[in-house]
Design brief:
CATH architecture: 3-Layer(aba) Sandwich
Order of helices and strands: HEEHEEH
Number of domains: 1
Strand content: 25-35%
Low-confidence stretches: 1-7
Structural class: alpha+beta
CATH topology: Rossmann fold
Mean pLDDT: 79
Shape: globular
Number of helices: 3
Distance between the termini: 35 Å
Largest sheet: 4 strands, antiparallel
CATH superfamily: P-loop containing nucleotide triphosphate hydrolases
Number of strands: 4
C-alpha cells in the first residue's frame, strides 16, 4: 500500500490550512429595475483554474467587479484569501497582488 495521499486527500488537508483564493457567499447586486446577481455563492481554491461563462447580461462583469472591490454588493460577502473585499479591503488587495506574482 502506498503512503502517498490521493489528490482529494491532499486538497482536503490544505483547504483546512489555507483560505480559499476567492469565496463568495449569497452575493446579490441590484440596479434600478435590474437584478444583476441573485444569491451567488462559489469557492475557488488557490491554484485552481476557473472559468466564468454565461450569456450577455448574466452578471459576469458585475461579479468580477465586486470581487475586485470596484463595486459594492447589495447583499452578501466576497472574500479574497480570507479577507473581506469591503471590510478588510487593504488586506484583500495586498493578498491579490501577492497571489498574482506567485507568493
Amino acid at each position: 500500500m502506498s503512503a502517498c495521499r490521493t489528490n482529494a486527500g491532499r486538497r482536503a488537508f490544505f483547504s483546512t490550512m489555507l483560505p480559499a483564493a476567492i469565496q463568495v457567499f449569497d452575493l446579490c447586486k441590484n440596479y434600478p429595475g435590474v437584478v444583476a446577481l441573485d444569491d451567488v455563492s462559489l469557492r475557488i481554491e488557490a491554484g485552481e483554474f476557473f472559468g466564468l461563462l454565461g450569456p450577455n447580461g448574466a452578471g459576469k462583469t458585475t461579479l468580477i467587479s465586486i470581487v475586485a472591490g470596484l463595486t459594492r454588493a447589495s447583499s452578501g460577502h466576497a472574500l479574497v484569501m480570507g479577507h473581506d473585499v469591503v471590510g478588510d479591503y487593504r488586506a484583500a488587495r495586498t493578498r491579490r497582488r501577492a497571489a498574482r506574482v506567485g507568493l
